[in-house]
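Hello again, I could really use a second opinion on something today. My current little project is about how a certain protein chain folds up. You're getting the sequence in one-letter code plus the fold written as tokens. Here's the protein in full, and shout if anything looks odd to you:
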Amino acid sequence: VMCGTGGDEMFGGYPWRYYKAGSDGSLEGFIDQFYLFWQRLIPNSVLNPMVAPIAKEVDGFLTRDVMRNVLTHKVSDVTSVEDCINVSLYFETKTFLQGLLVVTDKLSMAHGLETRVPFLDNDLVDFAMRMPVSLKLSNLEIDFRQDENMPGNKLVGTPFERDDGKRLLRRMMERHVPKSISNRPKRGFSGPDESWFKNESVDYVRRKLMGKNANIFEFLNRKQVQGVIDEHLSGKANKRLFVWSMLYLEEWCSQNL
């Protein structure tokens, strides 16, 4: 089977617009803004008390530095909006895309399917990396930012629903399909986050993350973690990404500790 994985990362297809964050000619300024945009689980003000059980082990470790190491591997400076966009796309390729490929491989092989990802052909990737940004995005000045923890459908009827990415691919496909398809707004998968880990899932979340034998509390502060989870379960805040991450961490700990 053919899979479209990589098309968004190579050709600027994702509708979020953090691309021009910090485009003031300063690489460090861009990294600061980029880091703050992707800080979706907990703010830095909560991070130290959250990891209190392993404070000595992580002393001096900064999550911003992890992101900086990825970004600066490709460039040493940014002087324009185009530079910021290229660095952002590179970051997506080195991080987010890797996770998608793991999922694609595991899901396909679990069902006996051989999957091919033609957008990641070596020559096509080299070509995409050399392309001018103007052939990927038609509006370089948009700086729309979406709160991933907001309730409701994050796509339909919001600036998140965009059709200005993958510009070259859209023009190419106009030869083969109606414009109503080639110019259709980007539509990603949006999970039912208002109900995730609530209703019938509450008991599962409480059993996994609030039980006295939960493994994650060898590394994380129980009071801090359970306080954030309570906010989600009570409806005070939508912390679906945090709960999702804690469930995965707990599962990993149960298999590897």
